Amino acid sequence: MDGYSAHAILVEKISDAIQEVIKDHKVEYGSIVERAPPDKGDLTINAIRIARSDEAAIKLAEKIANVLTTRVDLIGKVYIENNYVNIKVDPYKYGVIVWNIVSNQKENYGFNPHPQPKNIIVEHTSANPVHPLHIGHLRNCVIGDALARILKARGHKVNTHFYVDDVGLQMAYAAYGFEKAAMLQKDIKPDHYVGLLYAATNAVVNVYLLRKEREKANPEERARIDKELSEWLWVSKELMEKDEEIFTVIANAAMHEDPYARICDINRAYEAGEEWAVALVRRVANLCIDGFKKTLERLGISFDSWDWESEVTTWNGLVTEVLRGLRQSGLVIEKQGALIFEADKLAESHEIRQKLGLPRNYGISRLTLVRSDGTTLYPTRDIAYTLYKFQTGADKVINVVGAQQALEQIQVRLALYALGKAKEAENTIHFAYEMVTLPGVKMSGRRGRYVSADELLDEAVKRAGEELVKRGLELAENRDVAEKVGLGAVKFALLSISPSRPLMFSWDKVLDFDKNSGPFVQYAYVRARSVLRKAGSLKPLVTEGAFGEDERKIVFLVGYFPEVVAKSADELKVELIPQYLNELALAFNKYYDEVPILKAETLEKVQARLALTLMVAVTLENGMKLIGIEPPHRM
RNA sequence: GGGCCCGUGGCCUAGCAUGGAAAGGCGUCGGCCUCCGGAGCCGGAGUGCGAGAAAAACGCACGGAUAACCCGGGUUCAAAUCCCGGCGGGCCCGCCA
Hints:
There is one protein chain. This protein has helices spanning about 5-20, 45-50, 55-70, 90-105, 135-155, 170-180, 190-215, 220-240, 245-255, 260-270, 275-300, 310-315, 320-330, 345, 350-355, 380-390, 405-420, 420-425, 455-470, 480-495, 505-510, 520-535, 550-570, 575-595, 605-625, and strands at about 35, 45, 75-80, 85-90, 120-125, 155-165, 305-310, 330-335, 340, 365-370, 395-400, 430-435, 435, 505. By secondary structure, it is α/β, with parallel strands linked by helices. The protein has 4 domains: about 5-90, 2-Layer Sandwich (Gyrase A, domain 2), CATH 3.30.1360.70; about 120-155 and about 300-435, Rossmann fold; about 170-295, no CATH class; about 455-625, Isoleucyl-tRNA Synthetase, Domain 1 (Orthogonal Bundle), CATH 1.10.730.10. The strands form 4 sheets. It has a 5-stranded parallel beta sheet with strand order 7-6-5-11-12, with helices on both faces. A 4-stranded antiparallel beta sheet has the order 1-2-4-3. The chain has a 3-stranded antiparallel beta sheet with strand order 8-9-10. α5 (about 135-155) links the parallel β5 and β6. α19 crosses α20, α23 runs parallel beside α25 (about 605-625) and α24 packs antiparallel against α25 (about 605-625). The model has no long low-confidence stretch (mean pLDDT about 90). The structure holds one RNA strand of 97 nucleotides.
């Protein structure tokens, strides 16, 4: 059997058959054949949407129903309800097609190539190498990874990139801390170590700067400064409690010099590529990245490319080129030695707004490109980086970046326009996701306040292990199972909520083991595999009349999978996959409960049901892999 | 001050681009293992008082319970969905990233 999607074949047949009947009506929307709600069959056609009036809809529905019953052999039953034509597939005739495609595709089932595949770069995670990955990054990471996998399953050529933000003040802060405290030799995971250095330096320097500012401040300003100061003193206290030694060493060092001046010097020298600064900064950054890689490896997430900001934007002169181009655009002004890009002016153009999909009144502000001391700012380098991505051959660039950065992402695209890179601007997509918030506290890397990804994963695996023990499995022999289940729970939870929705973190939400969860899907999969194992030498086989009404829903759902992949990829909706998997798992669990598989009355029935079970197992497995969840063999 | 995102049963989450039957889960109550793995499956929707042997029905009281689209307008045959105006929560408007 050719083809990747039985569902597509089915829908095409239905559409062809009803062409004649609906040709007098103007159909303004994409698909007239939709999925039906539960208990209304498999597919549905809304006659009123086509006919536009009640009486016409009734007649039209009848005509459609007639045509479908007589002309589409894959359909088993058609009935009209409230102006809807509800359709049930013929479980056997349609099931054979689904079975053939699944049998051919096997571990690739779900692969559903786009007619025009593209070269796509997915940039995600891209955490600053100054602290460990925390829950927010984890949301980014898990979404980005799944997105890349899904786009590949849609036939696109995908490259994942991690942008290492090694240029900028934040890096210099961490480097300063490292310079002062390197001799301490802490025995902790390197990124956590760097995180402590970074937070301690931030606290020390902020207190230093605020005190200095306070001396020359007038009374009103003092009130504000005192407030900030007391907050940073509180942060300092927290950090002292975490690691007194680190904090003290950095605080002492800062008493004998101007720490901020030193930090700015590190920043300037690093950007200029001076050897001493490069050695210092790279040591810290690499320490942190070693830590990232450990976490990522555990998550089963890897990158095709690690792009060092310093290399791909600064030292190679690309950012200088960008600045030259922007100056020529006439949209750059100079103010006290700093360069400012008038993004707001460019955004006045209706045409550009439209092309970039900006809402009419979206407020755009100016963007400082270069500081008075000649160093560049993050968005400036980001413009260069975006160009760099296209230079490597990408048709499309997807940036998985927090929604807080929406304005910056738009400014970058406006800058591309100013540079005459309209195509690049239009093919740069900000895939925004909302923050993960902790109840009560505000997460902040600078303040050392975060729940790290490592802690979260440890806790998840620990809880999964406890569940295993409850079910009589020895933990010692099942560490890998606990790992898969724990991580599966976390990933599923992070993926099933739309990225546009803010996520209030809670252990219960992220570590769910009930329905609508990673473990639930894994469990259904394990059951299916277990049945197949028990079948021994009995092979799955589909013979005449193999599937009946009992199998209909599952046959339909399995056939629908490649459609979900296509939709998920084309609309960049990762959450469709976990939703689908939950639905299939639910349907299979029900089937498992109600219908005997190995004890079916005839050999043919047993083999047919094994075939169904195999299809479910393959689909669940492939679906889980699409979102980076590992299917366990037992649990 | 301007802008962006979010607001769906007690709680969490789909649905909104393309208007047309509001879908899952959690919780709660009650069932289902001589069966292939129970991390499962199926079903239900309140409480108190009165009279009464008891149940149903009934009456009274409280409640969101044939339980939900933040509120108010508008467009439409039709609005959770589109438009306008509010409200609530988050975020952004930096010579931070």
